[in-house]
Design a protein that fits this description.
Elements: H1 10-13, H2 19-73, E1 88-95, E2 102-110, E3 116-123, H3 126-135, E4 138-141, E5 144-152, E6 160-168, E7 215-223
Antiparallel strand pairs: 1-2, 2-3, 3-4, 5-6, 6-7
Length: about 230
């Protein structure tokens, strides 16, 4: 009589993973994925912060670059004291190459809605050029929280102007709170009138803004060309 040996199935005889082992593996995998997500969120937040800071800085650079160019082009009589304020400036210069000579005027005006207006115009006289420049004013840069022109000396033709500027990022950052104070060189408040007789070392709104916008403060002194 022939008999056949019975060999048990090797794969069926081996034990599989237990429920506890599967749960431990699942927890380890979830912890690893959570760490990756947290790291990516941190990098994304840091990237957004740098983008907003760069945005505020670029707006300040754009304003200062054009202001510097206009101040260096101005020639006597450079500054006209038409409605002079710390938040507005008017420059005129003569176009001697034309016959008869004409005049070019550039005007700057800060608005309470955080826009900086700029206008440029020409005319046969200084007054006509200023009128044309004022009529052509449009928004030059948005998100300018404050600007201050400090004329030295405070005459019709100052030798230099110190520009104090605060620009703001275009979007809010919920992970950031602006606790800074922003001061002008001349001590004049940008957005509010003098309070309690204090005129020196005033900040943007006489208190920290405590909002979620990144800002950039810039101060630069520009010496005017051809001023005696």
């Amino acid at each position: 009589m022939t008999t056949s040996a019975h060999y048990p199935n090797k794969f069926l005889s081996e034990a599989g993973f237990t429920l506890v082992e599967l749960l431990v593996a699942l927890v380890v995998a979830l912890l690893g994925m959570s760490a990756i997500v947290v790291a990516n969120l941190g990098q994304h937040q840091s990237y957004n912060t740098q983008v907003q800071i760069a945005d505020a800085r670029q707006k300040a650079r754009a304003v200062i670059a054009v202001l510097r160019s206009d101040l260096l082009k101005a020639q006597p009589p450079s500054f006209t004291q038409t409605t002079p304020t710390s938040t507005s400036m008017t420059l005129t210069w003569e176009n001697a190459a034309t016959v008869p000579p004409t005049f070019t005027a550039v005007t700057y005006q800060w608005q309470a809605n955080n826009g900086l207006l700029r206008g440029e115009g020409t005319g046969a006289t200084t007054g006509a050029a200023i009128t044309a420049a004022t009529a052509s004013q449009t928004i030059f840069v948005n998100d300018i929280d404050g600007i201050d022109f400090d004329y030295q000396p405070t005459t019709a033709a100052p030798k230099y102007v110190t520009i104090s500027l605060v620009s703001r990022a275009g979007g809010a950052d919920p992970h950031y709170s602006d606790n800074e104070t922003y001061r002008t060189s001349s001590g004049i408040a940008w957005a509010q009138a003098d309070q309690a007789g204090v005129t020196a070392n005033k900040n943007l709104n006489n208190a920290p803004l405590l909002d979620n916008f990144h800002r950039y403060s810039w101060q630069e002194t520009v010496f005017c060309r051809n001023q005696n």
